[in-house]
């Protein structure tokens, strides 16, 4: 069975979405300002070599994720890293996909994710907002967490973890710091 890998940027104080939405807290966001060092870019590309499907939330698609990477693929046509993976958007609010290599999945959330995990192929990478990620965590669908911890404390915001009675026990798979200040922490559910 394929692994579902949740990849998110996080502040050093544990938030994936700051309370102050106008705060510029990430070393890299979408756009041309990409301040990651070469080592972190290499790790990011290595992760993408191990996946053949990207699971996206409707919200992140509407915020520009696919438009950004579509422009990057057109600007760098000789570089296969920009035309990566089949994309699947889980939503019942979009009637059709307007993006290349992108399918819309309208079934039940849990059933759609489990069906993707059972298909043959490489792992599945999840990129989405805090609500989408929280739903995956709550339903125990995530097999690996990759948190790109940015060197900024945001003081408050939202987390993907909500169980305040039991918490979420995790097992460290690896941790590595990069010159740009980002630390990537990888975990599996304990």
UniProtKB/TrEMBL annotation:
GO terms for molecular function: 5-amino-6-(5-phosphoribosylamino)uracil reductase activity. GO terms for biological process: riboflavin biosynthetic process. InterPro entries: DHFR-like_dom_sf (IPR024072), RibDG_C (IPR002734), Riboflavin_Biosynth_HTPR (IPR050765). It comes from the Bacteria. Residues 2-184 form the Bacterial bifunctional deaminase-reductase C-terminal domain. This is Deaminase. It comes from Variovorax paradoxus.
């Amino acid at each position: 069975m394929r692994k579902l890998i949740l990849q998110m940027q996080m502040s050093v104080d544990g938030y994936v979405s700051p309370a102050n939405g106008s705060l510029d807290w990430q070393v890299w966001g979408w756009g041309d300002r990409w301040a990651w060092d070469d080592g972190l870019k290499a790790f990011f590309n290595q992760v993408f070599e191990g996946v053949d499907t990207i699971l996206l939330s409707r919200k992140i698609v509407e915020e520009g994720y696919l438009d950004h990477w579509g422009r990057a693929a057109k600007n760098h046509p000789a570089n296969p890293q920009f035309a990566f993976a089949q994309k699947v958007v889980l939503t019942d609010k979009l009637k059709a996909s307007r993006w290349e290599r992108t399918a819309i999945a309208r079934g039940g959330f849990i059933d759609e994710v489990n069906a993707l995990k059972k298909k043959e192929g490489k792992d599945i990478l999840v990129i989405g907002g805090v609500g989408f990620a929280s739903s995956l965590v709550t339903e125990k669908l995530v097999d690996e967490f990759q948190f790109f911890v940015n060197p900024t404390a945001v003081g408050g915001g939202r987390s993907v973890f909500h169980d305040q009675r039991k918490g979420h026990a995790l097992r460290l798979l690896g941790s590595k710091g990069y010159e740009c200040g980002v630390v990537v922490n990888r975990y599996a559910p304990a």
